[in-house]
Design brief:
3 domains, 5-stranded parallel β-sheet, 46% helix, 426 residues, Rossmann fold, 6-stranded parallel β-sheet, single chain, alpha/beta, 17 helices, 16% strand
């Protein structure tokens, strides 16, 4: 059963405390990465048989197989995927930025150009559920950024890759799909193999082996983030329906046994009502064992004196998803400093953001919303600076630059400037 706690009795450590599955996968992941780097496709086939129980004839799906998957997908879901893609595209299109050029006086030009990444790898998890929404959320911003090639990897099941995943890949614009998963798929994207091309960046969620693999290959390639278990924090006042609040908490608890669902409220009556309602609704969930463990391990209800204190606690936790289920939620938006995505009002459940509304659902977890942001178009571009000086402009700046360099003990730096000025005066 979820715990009810009083904020006045809690330390900062108590507020932030949560149980997570311990690491212990670093050496295993490192071994897989090294093996794929050496043996390439042979290692990928070996690990797919070992971990997924599937013996692959080919690693990459053909265009015909992708089209077949699209045709087998639930027509109603396909229709919704198209609608969701449209909303996601419209939201992220507004994130696109242009470079700039500044013509200063005396012949100085400064600027910055925005360049898309050449090739990006997208990891889509398999296992207990299929997530076509993650395909849309990762691919559409990359496409809008101008990425030339998007490679998707996802583990095969006994019946192949779910049609919903392949339909989403077609709708979003994935270029190539490989039926590989786990740390070995991350290795293939980072190092390249005989079949899988090396990418510039890897995005997408996964289990702790995938997260550790992304961590270990960072630097050789870029990554979006080290995604942890799902999180939701609901700030609710006493006018909220306990059944609705409980449903929102369970919407994340059913994701993962290590997920975190937290309610912060100024109403002891609501707290008790939500506690009871969670027990009722848990019994109805197909994934109740997962949700039960999440609620028992990491679920908590914190009672505060007012909503302002609730916002302070939320900023301490820096949740992935924050619901403001209060009257006049926009009054509090300016006070929210740390959150991945904020859901304003009693009619804005977190699930809207997961699937349909348009903002990205790839969000910082584990408190990293204190310093990082949701996945966006910016994640798929790089910025290149440039500058140009005329002889007159260089002459004007030369002594200042040379003196600065000499103060740092870098005489060759200084000389590279002064030699040009000296040549101009000869």
């Amino acid at each position: 059963m979820i715990r009810i706690l009083n904020a006045v009795e809690l330390s900062r450590a108590d507020i932030l405390a949560r149980e997570e599955e311990q690491g212990g996968v670093e050496e295993a992941v490192a071994a897989i990465l090294a093996d794929v780097r050496i043996r390439g496709d042979e290692a990928l086939r070996y690990y797919t048989k070992e971990f997924d129980g599937v013996e692959l004839r080919t690693l990459e799906l053909s265009d015909f197989e992708l089209d077949q998957g699209f045709c087998r997908a639930d027509p109603k879901l396909v229709e919704i995927l198209f609608l969701a893609a449209e909303r996601i595209r419209d939201f992220h299109d507004r994130q696109r930025t242009q470079g700039f050029m500044v013509n200063q006086e005396d012949g100085v030009i400064l600027g910055q150009k925005v360049t898309p990444l050449e090739r990006v790898g997208l990891y889509i998890p398999g296992g207990t559920a299929a997530y076509p929404s993650s395909v849309l959320m990762n691919v559409i911003p990359a496409k809008l950024a101008g990425v030339k090639e998007i490679i998707m990897v996802t583990p095969p099941g006994k019946n192949g890759i779910p049609p919903s995943i392949l339909a989403a890949a077609r709708i979003a614009g994935v270029d190539r799909v490989f039926q590989i998963g786990g740390a070995q798929a991350v290795a293939a994207l980072a190092f390249g193999t005989q079949s899988v091309p090396k990418v510039d960046k890897i995005t997408g969620p996964g289990n702790r082996y995938v997260a550790e693999a992304k961590k270990q290959v960072f630097g050789r390639v870029d990554i979006d983030m080290i995604a942890g278990p799902s999180e939701i924090l609901v700030i609710a006042d006493g006018s909220c329906n306990p059944a609705v609040v409980a449903a929102d908490l369970l919407s994340q608890a059913e994701h993962d046994r290590n997920a975190s669902a937290v309610l912060v409220t100024d109403s002891p009556t609501l707290a008790e009502g939500v506690q009871r309602e969670l027990e009722v609704q848990l019994e109805t969930l197909p994934r109740r064992e997962i949700a039960r463990e999440s609620i028992d391990k990491n679920g908590k209800i914190i009672i505060v004196k007012d909503i302002a204190e609730a916002v302070e606690i939320s900023n301490e936790i820096a949740p992935e998803h924050l619901e403001l289920c209060v009257d006049n939620p926009f009054d509090y938006l300016s006070r929210i400093q740390n959150a991945g995505s904020v859901f304003l009002g009693k009619h804005t459940p977190e699930a809207l953001g997961d699937y349909f509304a348009g903002p990205n659902h790839t969000l910082p977890t584990g408190g990293t919303a204190r310093f990082s942001s949701p996945l966006s178009v910016d994640d798929f571009v790089k910025k290149v600076q440039y500058l140009s000086y005329t002889p007159k402009a260089l002459s004007k700046a030369a002594q200042s630059v040379a003196y600065f360099a000499q103060q740092e003990g870098l005489r060759a730096h200084a000389r590279s400037v002064t030699i040009r000025v000296e040549e101009e005066t000869l």
